[in-house]
Amino acid sequence: MDSTNTVPKDPEVKDATEEQGAVIDTSKMSAGQRAALELTEAARDAAAERGSFGGGLFMGRFDLGAIRPFPVQKPEDRDQGDAFLQRLEGFLREKVDPDEIDQTGEIPPEVIKELAGMGAFGIKISPGYGGLGLSQTNYCRAAILLGGYCGNLTALISAHQSIGVPQPLILFGNEEQKRRFLPRVAKGEISAFALTEAGVGSDPAKMQTHAEPTPDGKHFFLNGEKLWCTNGTKAGVIVVMARTPAKMVNGKPKDQITAFIVEMDTPGVEVVQRCRFMGLRALYNGVVRFNNVRVPRENILLAEGKGLRVALSTLNTGRLTLPAGCVGLAKRCLEIVKKWANERVQWGAPIGKHAAIADKIARMAANTFAMEAMTLYSASLVDRDKKADIRLEAAMCKLWGSEVAWEIVNDTMQIRGGRGYETADSLKTRGEERVPVERFFRDSRINTIFEGSSEIMRLFIAREALDPHLKIAAPVLNSQLPLAERLKAAFKAGLFYAMWYPKQFLPRFNVQRSKFKVHPILRRNLRYAARTSRRLARKLFHAMLVYGPKLERQQVLLGRFVDIGTEIFAITAACTRADALIGRGANADELLALVDYFCRSSRLRIGRNFHGLRHNADRQGYRLAQDTLAGKHDWLEQGMVGHVDL
Ligand SMILES: Cc1cc2nc3c(=O)[nH]c(=O)nc-3n(C[C@H](O)[C@H](O)[C@H](O)COP(=O)(O)OP(=O)(O)OC[C@H]3O[C@@H](n4cnc5c(N)ncnc54)[C@H](O)[C@@H]3O)c2cc1C
Questions:
Q1: Angle at CA 517, nearest 5°, toward 512 and 520?
Q2: Whose CA is nearest to atom 4 of ligand 1?
Q3: pLDDT tens for residues 590-637?
Q4: 262 with 372, same domain?
């Protein structure tokens, strides 16, 4: 499939794969695993220095200054957002019936038209290209509004501009491309993002869709089939990831993936099937086939071979929309639960008075606040600097937000009891309120799977967290380097760790009370976060010493480190947001009760994860899983209806 041509060496690709490949143990990997690792490593932004708050946590660097004072929207930005959000809210409330959209599996064309008319397809696109030019924070606020109302519309708008043509074009498009495409997509021409294939879910190395240049090099012929392309059945223009001829790097052919902007009316583009799902029933999602589709070279985003970089960077910011939608959903669930738990009397008391239900409601309220704090903070980083490195923060928001939102929806269903399981229309037919918990449940399940599954998010965060250590340790362990160079690197690494390690035991959150006015409850929790960040760094370092390059394969163990880091981020965002809100006159007692409860619960989760680092059944569990997969416990499946091939 890939033809090979020799091109000059790409130093970025070398840095990413060769320096760090040595400390990630590839010895027991299959060729497929190794190919996947090499490809994603090459696409990492290796040159970027991790200076972010999230990245620092895993190195014991608790940079409170990066998150405090908690960013507040400038009045002008807020007013611009408010004006749009008011229009959007009024329109949704008056003209959009999300249950009907769910039932019919279609979004009425007039809804799409009106959304386009108010600029909802070009929220972040600058006015010079026909968009509204709103900030990332305002865009997230729109996603919050939509997320608590209609999952189908959230997906339509988000797939279009978080991962569809606008986002990669804003990030990587040249002026000519921006002039050609941005005004169209801003006006409402729907766009999409096509990476997934039948064999390519989380692993892009197996990509089959390919594009071969024409002899004059001016065009590419695109062939292949993309799966589950959201908006694909309605889009006018989409971004397609395809394999292009391999490059020679250090005498070896290196796989190349390139991002193309493809006009859907080009001959050879075919929407083969509209896919249907458990939830998001009005998703315009499809299988898109490319049969000798002629794409001009000018439609390449960034550069040939940089497609995975385009895809990963697009998702880095793009995936912030998903947790914002989750915040909206959580707010709606809270509203539903508050009403029901007050109203519904069982066993002589409103169910909200029963401790088992009250426990769920407290968790929902506290988690909603923290989720919103994390999302707004991360959005503000993009507003401060469009090219800000928010890889870790966005991934943490996505991982934590989607998992917590799922728990919230699940608890909402439990609290609504049988009514949670009943459809909104059936409730209405019986004369009850049309509360769509069943729809929310179906619509939200996908959130932990798409735009980076939870498992992949944990691996991604772990990889980024280990990066500073890998940079230091890689040359020491790289057997291909001359001995003298390795010894020099070992000396440097020794010096670094001799300074760094003892610091992880020293208290450093000793800001003077006078300089750092914060409520004692928040101060206590922030101190805990700072202290725990150093403990996290120490434990991660110990794990590196124990497992060496094999640490990368300890997915469950690494997952615990990631979850601890994410909880520290959540505590810090929640405390600093509360601090800012109190500073602006919010009711301190109410807020402190909410945030302190959140921090206490989070600390318990962190404690369990630290405990699990040493006390776990990971190894036995892995063995049992392999035995099960190999058929050792087939007897467990006895007593079922025999397999029916329908
Ligand atoms: C409704 C819907 C909309 C979508 N929209 C789009 C879209 O617009 N554009 C697009 O390109 N794609 C889209 N997708 C695809 C989506 O992003 C993928 O489903 C997702 O990337 C996971 O891929 P997969 O389903 O093939 O799972 P797989 O990659 O096959 O993974 C299956 C399971 O194994 C886990 N897993 C995989 N690899 C590892 C590993 N190395 N370590 C540990 N666990 C692992 C995964 O987390 C998952 O739990 C959509 C999917 C759906 C269902």
A1: 95
A2: 228
A3: 999 999 999 999 999 999 999 999 999 999 999 999 999 999 999 999
A4: no
